[in-house]
Description:
This protein is of the alpha+beta class. It contains 2 helices and 6 strands. The protein has a 6-stranded antiparallel beta barrel. It is rod-shaped.
Amino acid sequence: MQLCSHLARVFLAAILCTGIAGCRTLPWPKDKEKGAATDEPESPAPRPATTLPVGTVHLVDENAGFVLIRSSRVLQIEPGTMLQVHGNQGEVVATLEVSPARKGSFLTGDLRWGAPKKGQQVTMDYLPPAAGSQEAAPFPSASDPNAIQVLE
């Protein structure tokens, strides 16, 4: 009988602790009034830009003012996107603007400033679209017969 009494007390204490903790998480009318006066609407934190490697400088034509870049990835880089060329120490030595001309794994960039050299690394700053925005579709259109879909 004494064991049942101890178990009943432990069970009652557990229920009491759970009830108190549950009441703590409930919103009270006082909290709603105080929170409405001080809270501002939350805006999502801005996402930091990511630096993506694009490829390497394959050819520099300073007279024509363009650079041929051999891309290491299949990236859909829009014309007008700014690219940075990095020297051996990682410093930015030139800035390029992507032009519409491209062929296979090569793309061209118009020289804006600096003096890039063959073999230097080219990167771009990428800002991912905000969650819920319709800026870029994550999947290719089903109507495009040349679209590549990766199934994981």
